[in-house]
Input
Amino acid sequence: MTRALAAYLAVALLIAGAVASDITLADVSVSLMEASGSIVASTSVTGPSTANLGTLDHTRTLKVSLTTSLSAAPGEDFRPQQVFLRLTCRSSQDAAYFAAVKAKDGTLYATAKSADIQKQVGLQSGAYTAAIIVGDTRAAQPLLWTLGEVQVLHAPLDDGSQPAAAPYRAIDRTHKPLLEIVHMHRLPERRAPAVVSVLFTLVAAAPVAIYVAVALQMGANLKGFPSGGGFLAAAGFHLGLLSILGLYLLFWLRLTMVQTLPMLAVLSAVTAAFGSTTLKQATGRGSKLE
Amino acid sequence: MVRPVALLLAATVLCTAAASVAGAEKQSVLVLLDDPALEQSHSTFLKSLSARGYAVTIKPITHKALQLKSWDDWLYDKLVILGSSNELGGAVDVAQVVEFVDAGHDVLLAVDSGVSEELRELSQELGVDVDVRGHAVIDHLGFESQLGGEDHAALLADSVVQSAAVLPGGLQGPVLFRGIALSVPADSETAFLALSGSPTAYSGKPGVAQTDAKLAGGSMGLVALAQLRNNARIAVAGSLDMFSDAAFQAHATSHSGQGLGQVANEAFCAAISKWAFSERGVLRATGLSHRVVSGAEPGAVNPELYRINDEVEFSVHIQECNEGSCRPFKGDDVQVELQMLDPYVRSWLRHDGSGRFSALVKVPDAYGVFKWVVDYRRLGYSYIELTETVPIRPFKHHEYERFILQAYPYYASVASMMAGFMAVGAFFLYTR
Amino acid sequence: MNQQFESVKEIVAEFSKSYHKTPQRLKLLDAFSICALATAVLQFVYAKLVGTFPFNAFLAGFFCCVGTFVLTLALRMKASEAGGGVAEFGGYALAMCTLFLASVNYIG
Output
């Protein structure tokens, strides 16, 4: 009877705000469980600690369970307004939060899987600091207990390595400068050494020189060049041919096709005139000879 | 007799002219208040808007004759909504405010825990999600004990965005906040959090045990900003009390009773509203030009075409405008791309200190229709999106290298064939 | 095996005996044809050795020589008939000049 009265008084005073109350945690345990439910590691925590709690990979679940009570109302079923498990990534200080739910036996427990961590902070693997935050407006002092360190691993890639951590927020990806691109120009083709080219120039010019020598040796001559009347036509013809080849040389060095064609037309007309005359005469001469 | 009249006439003309010039400079702001009492309780903030040179019109949010546009003209340049549970009245609704923003105008929206569904929808359309009505931001380890001693729902926030454009010089003290939480989707490319919760803060229904931790810590926003794709700006704040005179004058006391000095609400709200009204961090790019340094037409400025392998200098002038004065921009990470479907070249633009950004680029040896693209998006600054189309042509048939040493054997062979032809002709015709 | 060898030798001997009998003018043209062919082959060897770098120049030079070879053979065919081929020389000259124009234009 007195106990009930005391409890009632305490609760009334609490509601009136006159009595400062503290939360106490009991039976705090951190456990790592496999998917099947078997416990890999379990640690009992009695206060803030920096123990190594193990590895949370993509098949396991981290479970923190505890019971809470309010000093002003002992024995009463007390559920604080905030019981959060917080996992803070050591390198980037991004945190994932998990709220505790009530189990059938009255304890509160919070579970975390690496997939849930990924939903909140992206694919960051590595060391995370685990902590529980217990707070309530009825309590004077909230509690923030560091439970220890957990290694979080996400589902590995095909070769077993961890997926790379990309910036979780799109704005961190798009509002950054991009990689510099330098265009690879086509490399100039490999050229022959100058000596080889000069050598082959002489080699390429050689056959004609050999031909002229052979022809002269065979008895070629220009004795049949027409003299007198036919001289002009024959000379004109051959000079005309020479001038056309000279025009080609000029075209190669300096002129464009548009410029050469008119000149070529003139020269070829002249050459053709001389040529037809001289060849007719030559044909006549040849048939006479034969 | 004539002179006084003439003087009077001149004076009238001058006064009208001056007034019209001054009137043309002023931008107009429409302020919608959920409760007429806000005009007194938030007088410092509202007066600061007029002091910055805006023509401020204050109306109740439920006003029956409310309108933002008359036929096709927008009546105001900026919109401030200090809203809660009352709905938008008159001709103004969510669709019209979104249209107002699409036309390039800025909006500052402040709500609190009693936010109406209509204002939640408006905020979502603009890119920022507001938490469920009735929820509040609670921090059992970081509340302000003067105002939040009972429900732990008034907190002192100090994690702000690190951006010189939004908050030059950072925060000089904590910001007193009492209201509702915001969040920005992770895939948003326009919105970001200007003020976010501390690692122990969360959003939930006060006085009730939390069953999920959806919004908590650093990813829970208290004030969010967005730079939209048409360079209009949005600011959404989850607290009306943050802008009040009482908050501006408050002295912060931590949850353990320790005094933390003057809160920085006045400076923070001024910075947020300046950024939101495009007074800070506005980048202006002008004078885009390109010049051929060496290649087909050396010295040609803004030519019609490039030839492949030309060396081109691309330059643009960029200014940064803050509170009325424009200075040369000093960014080190501006890039220019030369792209045809995909970028072929991406080069850094280096500035010379006076706002002229330039880069020397060798034109790729692919030909087609290319365009210069400057696409500069950085947190807190307005976007620069410039393009300039320039086709690239291949070498013309007479622009290739000639008289190459390696081709001398071929030249010799043709010459020798010509000589041989003359010789064989003479021998053939005249040998006796 | 001996028989084959003998027959090749016989063919060569027979050929060189008959060839001596060809007129001098035709031999001139034959020599020039061989010269043109040799120049073409030398250019091909050069290109194989050092690469086809100015490919247009290689083609121009090579086909100039091959074209000369073909045209000279055509003239030789006419020259071996009655009339001596003198009248056809005009056509030969025109064809050669056209070939040279095309080669010079393409050789760059």
User: Anything to note?
Assistant: The helical segments of chain C are 2-20, 24-50, 55-79, 89-107. The mean pLDDT of chain C is 90.
